[in-house]
């Protein structure tokens, strides 16, 4: 195929566009991917095929490896990071594997597409002392605030206590909380269900929110959600993220972490406290223990830092 012009948008042939929708349906129905993930994959595959169409593609069966490489090169020229390139390459490979398996292309051209290596960075986490200060801060806010401050404290306490994702927290229903066992039933990625315990401080914050805060915010129709917004309906994940940023802003020495930072912190502190990798993997809902393993590197690096600062011959 010839040179590509990136200046003009191009419509996909109807049959190619239909394949994109069939691929999206496959991801949702058969792979159990979340609507957010499906939308991201659909967007990336559409961008790839539009790029190929500008190069002359009229039929999906004519897709070539060079189309994929040219698309990634264009993203790199536009300032795309290694992480972005790796993600787009991974999406392309999933799509071409599906297209070949379902007879839409004769050969899987993506199988020979190199995935750029991404330098693995260790996540920022709170120290145990910083986490304690943050929790003390959100508790102090409840003394002068109303129902919203009770909710915010419960959100921060539960995120740190359990290490669950924000989407999982916002998806909790009242029936998912077992007060006697102090556990929450969580639906994670791929609609997989797991049970996660939480401690006494989170139980106290959750109890205060449900008895004194939540009833004050509820509006018809009454939501079954554990956490609700000021209009009485299920809490939006974007609001949960703002709650975490506000809580951390009160602590000058704490890194400005997103809610995922509380998840990172919880995992790190569990391992530092003696929990084994498999247990932490199950609590976090990781499909592979390799994902959980990076938190051991966080702990080791913190140990090295403390050694260098404290040992006279470091």
What general outline do the C-alpha atoms trace? globular
Residue runs with pLDDT of under 50 for 5 or more positions:
1-7
Number-wise, the strands total 3
CATH class of the largest domain: Mainly Alpha
**Tally of helical runs:** 12
Q: What profile does the largest beta sheet have?
A: 3 strands, antiparallel
Radius of gyration equals 24 Å
Q: Calculate the mean pLDDT score and round it.
A: 85
Reported CATH architecture of the largest domain? Orthogonal Bundle
Order of helices and strands: HHHHHHHEEEHHHHH
Q: Could you say which structural class the secondary elements and strand pairing correspond to?
A: mainly alpha
Helix fraction by DSSP (H/I, runs of at least 4): 55-70%
- Order of strands across the biggest sheet? 1-2-3
> What is the rounded distance between the termini?
59 Å
Protein described:
- This protein is mainly alpha-helical and about 325 residues long.
- It has 2 domains: about 15-110, Orthogonal Bundle (DNA polymerase, domain 1), CATH 1.10.150.130; about 130-310, Intergrase catalytic core (hpI Integrase, Chain A, Orthogonal Bundle), CATH 1.10.443.
- The chain is about 55% helix and about 5% strand.
- It contains 12 helices and 3 strands.
- The chain has helices at about 15-30, 35-55, 65-75, 80-100, 130-140, 145-160, 165-170, 200-215, 235-250, 260-270, 275-285, 290-310, and strands at about 175-180, 185, 195.
- Strands 1-2-3 form a 3-stranded antiparallel β-sheet.
- Strand 2 and strand 3 form a beta hairpin.
- Helix 6 packs across helix 10.
- The longest helix has 22 residues, at about 290-310.
- The chain starts with 13 loop residues before the first helix and ends with a helix.
């Amino acid at each position: 195929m010839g040179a590509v012009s990136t200046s003009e948008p191009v419509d996909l042939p109807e049959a190619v566009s239909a394949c994109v929708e069939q691929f999206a349906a496959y991801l949702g129905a058969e792979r159990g991917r979340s609507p957010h993930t499906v939308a991201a994959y659909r967007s990336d595959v559409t961008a790839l095929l539009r790029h190929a169409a500008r190069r002359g593609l009229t039929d999906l069966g004519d897709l070539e490896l060079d189309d994929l490489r040219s698309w990634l090169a264009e993203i790199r020229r536009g300032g795309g990071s290694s992480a972005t390139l790796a993600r787009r390459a991974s999406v392309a490979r999933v799509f071409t594997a599906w297209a070949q398996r379902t007879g839409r292309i004769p050969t899987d051209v993506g199988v020979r597409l190199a995935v750029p290596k991404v330098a693995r960075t260790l996540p920022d986490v709170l120290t145990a002392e910083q986490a304690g200060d943050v929790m003390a801060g959100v508790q102090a806010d409840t003394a002068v605030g109303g129902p919203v401050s009770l909710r915010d404290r419960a959100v921060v306490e539960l995120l740190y206590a359990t290490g669950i994702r924000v989407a999982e927290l916002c998806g909790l229903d009242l029936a998912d909380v077992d007060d006697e066992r102090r556990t929450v039933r969580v639906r994670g990625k791929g609609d997989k269900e797991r049970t996660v315990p939480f401690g006494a401080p989170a139980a106290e914050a959750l109890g205060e929110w449900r008895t004194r805060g939540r009833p004050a915010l509820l509006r018809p129709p009454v939501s079954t959600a554990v956490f609700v917004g000021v209009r009485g309906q299920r809490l939006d994940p974007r609001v949960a993220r703002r709650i975490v940023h506000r809580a951390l802003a009160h602590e000058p020495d704490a890194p400005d972490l997103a809610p995922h930072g509380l998840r990172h912190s919880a995992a790190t502190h569990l391992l530092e406290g003696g929990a084994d990798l498999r247990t932490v993997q199950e609590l976090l809902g990781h499909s592979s223990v390799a994902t959980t393993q990076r938190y051991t590197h966080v702990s080791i690096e913190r140990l090295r830092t403390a050694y260098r600062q404290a040992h006279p011959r470091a």
